[in-house]
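Task 17 of the worksheet. Students: predict the tertiary structure of the chain below and write it out as structure tokens. Keep your answer in the requested format; marks are given for formatting as well as content.
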Amino acid sequence: MRPPLVLGALAVTAVLTGALALHPVPPDAPLRPLAGSVPHWPAGVQRTGTARTGSVSFSVLLAPDRLAGAPSIRGWLQDHGLHAAPVRPAAASIPVEGPVDQVADAFHTTFARYRTAQGTVVTAPERPLSVPRELAAVTGIAGVVVADTIRPTEVARGTSPTVRGHVLADDGTCAAYWGEKVTTDWPASVVVDHRSNALCGYGPAQLREVHHLPADVTGRGARIAIVAAFDDPDVEQDTDTYARATGTQPFTAGQYRNHAPDAPDVDRCGGPEAWTEEQHLDVQAVHAMAPDATVDYWGAADCGTTAMYSRILDVVEDGHADVISLSFGSTEQLDTADDRALLNRVLVEAASLGISVFASSGNDGDYSDAGDHGAGASVASPASSPYVTAVGGTSTGLAADGSVAVEAGWETQTRFARNGAVIPPGFAYGAGGGESGTSARPTWQRDDIRRGGTGRLVPDVASIADPDTGFVTYGPHHGRTEYAAHGGTSLATPMVASMVAMSKAVTGRRIGLASPALFALRGTAALRDVRPTSAATWSPRGPDAGALWPETIAMWDTRPQSLQSGPGWDDVTGLGVPDGRAFIERFGATEAGR
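Model answer:
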């Protein structure tokens, strides 16, 4: 095993004084196109018309060793009526904002509107942006694709449990633990070795049992940051209410800090109400896993790549995090090469400062047309970056004593419970995974995974994600403040991030990028391998609140698309689930697994 990759900080030693002489760029100056500024559209994207209105928030990427040219570039941008913020040396970028027509004029392009296969409206340049050749320090333009394609990766189940004496329950059909209740209406045509009614949803203590956390590992000294869009100021109060109802500890003064965006664009991304359940899930999952850790939530102004990736950089520069959890994403085919360059600059800076970043692999499996998208196989971004640790998902049934009774990769096929027939299209939801079409395979995966291809493989590790074996949160749901069972790789990601943060707090090891250290633990007791198992759950309703069919069987890990768990690394659960004291003590150790 090679030693983990050591990442250096960006070379950003240029001194920015503003004393540099500025000179105007002639209007007829020769142009240089920036090929990475436009997307390579996947199948199913259609042009619907020209875009002349609206605004664009983007980032001008600079060569890290030529930051002294930033004042001239800012002056050129301002001459074109664009607002250019001060340069951000850590990412070698200049944040810029302006009207679509002025951006198009400045960069010699036109913008059009497109519609994706999922129906999302996108505004994007029709040809690469160009800059005068005199602006040699400019290497790319990130964020000029205006779209709400980045979404939370949480899944809410239709049931709404209540808390009765610290025990979660609902209408009498769900199970408090695996097999506690099994319907007598199970169809004879569906034969599995392990069956249970869908679980009511785990509470905080059960969530820790998924990773077999020792009682003395509570996150004291750990610093966990969460990045998503917008901010709900009621999260701390709702989390404290939940903690008291379940007999766990509320936040202490100053333990939770929310960093709301200065100017949220509430007309985009579904608005704050589309992200509040995600925020509640992330914060409450982290607090359940690491009740003594400090939690910082950072809300971006919208869900665009510039806003989200810049918010990650805000966390890095704040310096108050051991790990960062990202429970959002979109298919990587809608990113541009310059978007990925900005993201990777931010992630490399985080790693150089000893901060580990984790991203959810998504809930759409392989995105293939065997599901409901019809856009071909893909993986999610930012999880597909080699500088982030991608988190997949499991279906995990806990026994009454908290032990793992049954576990498999989270890939769900739904069936009509009355006759056992498959509900079209067969795939309901599941963890994302597969091979990146844009990022090269990192060295630690080349050494340890015997699989063809050259692209980065997703995910790296996993935790519980199936909403039928999910986690109960307390907060806004269906227009009310109530308890609701949630899942998705949005749940798995903060759980894995919490495990790594607690390991760092216990051992004092300063690990940046976590993936090489995780691969060093492959095949040891620190990671619980996940394989297919013959199991299913029964529910009195479909996986969606508006489902037209009645009782439903959810089949586990039956390859409804191309993904399935398996021995060793697999494209649903990666290396497996971080497990117990062995993981806490051995993550990042120089002789891990030897």
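Marker's comment: The two ends are 10 Å apart (CA to CA). The chain has a mean pLDDT of 90.
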